[in-house]
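Structure in, sequence out. Go:
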């Protein structure tokens, strides 16, 4: 197992407010982070990233020259930046405003003001995504587990793939929605399905119902990963046969615990 320490993380804080920068830097220092760079605009952040690739970008949402989403998309769409994790720090609490960030692969969304617990979880999630920590299963060889990942967001699939790859899972097949997943499952056997809830054509609920009622893999464990994991209407998903629910953005350690429960019982 190769695990980073908080003191080894390199962080770029992008925050236009002098006061907020000082507060967040102080919190990061208190958590043992020593290597902190700061930027006040997207342009300045892009210049710093091009010269020195941080492990994590912690960014406010709004700037005079754009939004955090502009920076996030640049990181996710550039191969040389794909290992840089992204954390949003914002006072925005409306789900519809945050949904695009959840779907784009942020490691965490921190509220303003945030607690030490919030920050600690976000830093731990970053470390987990940058580290290797394989599952040690009693009943399976983790390297031979066949996993189907279903999500209409390419970025979300990448985050899921990276998280479970760090846990030792290597045989990963991707589907862009439930319809494609159904066709794939008609021809291939899997040991685990990880699926989004909201998808076009065939959503996570319909996919779960197909697996449980119409497939030859009716007993396969199903983990649903969704930004709506706490919504009341997802009770229908549990009744349909989902084994576990996990929120977006998810914490790798929580995913690890869930996989132990699903695969090692």
């Amino acid at each position: 197992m190769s695990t980073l320490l908080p003191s080894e993380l390199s962080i770029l804080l992008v925050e236009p407010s002098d006061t907020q920068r000082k507060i967040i830097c102080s919190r990061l220092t208190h958590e043992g982070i020593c290597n902190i760079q700061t930027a006040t605009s997207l342009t300045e952040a892009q210049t710093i990233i091009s010269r020195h690739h941080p492990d994590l970008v912690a960014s406010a949402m709004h700037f005079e020259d754009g939004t955090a989403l502009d920076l996030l998309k640049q990181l996710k769409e550039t191969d040389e930046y794909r290992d840089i994790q992204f954390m949003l720090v914002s006072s925005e609490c409306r789900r519809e405003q945050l949904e695009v960030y959840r779907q784009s692969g942020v490691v965490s969304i921190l509220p303003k003001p945030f607690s030490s617990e919030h920050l600690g979880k976000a830093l731990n999630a970053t470390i987990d995504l940058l580290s290797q920590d394989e599952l040690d299963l009693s009943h399976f060889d983790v390297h031979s587990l066949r996993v189907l990942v279903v999500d209409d967001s390419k970025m979300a699939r990448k985050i899921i793939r990276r998280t479970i790859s760090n846990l030792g899972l290597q045989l990963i097949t991707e589907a862009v929605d439930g319809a494609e997943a159904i066709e794939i499952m008609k021809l291939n056997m899997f040991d685990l399905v990880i699926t989004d809830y909201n998808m076009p054509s065939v959503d996570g609920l319909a996919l779960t119902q197909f697996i449980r009622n119409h497939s030859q893999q009716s007993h396969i464990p199903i983990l649903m990963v969704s930004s709506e994991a706490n919504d009341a209407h997802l009770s229908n998903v549990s009744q349909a046969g989902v084994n576990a629910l996990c929120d977006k953005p998810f914490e790798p350690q929580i995913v690890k615990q869930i996989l132990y429960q699903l695969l090692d019982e």
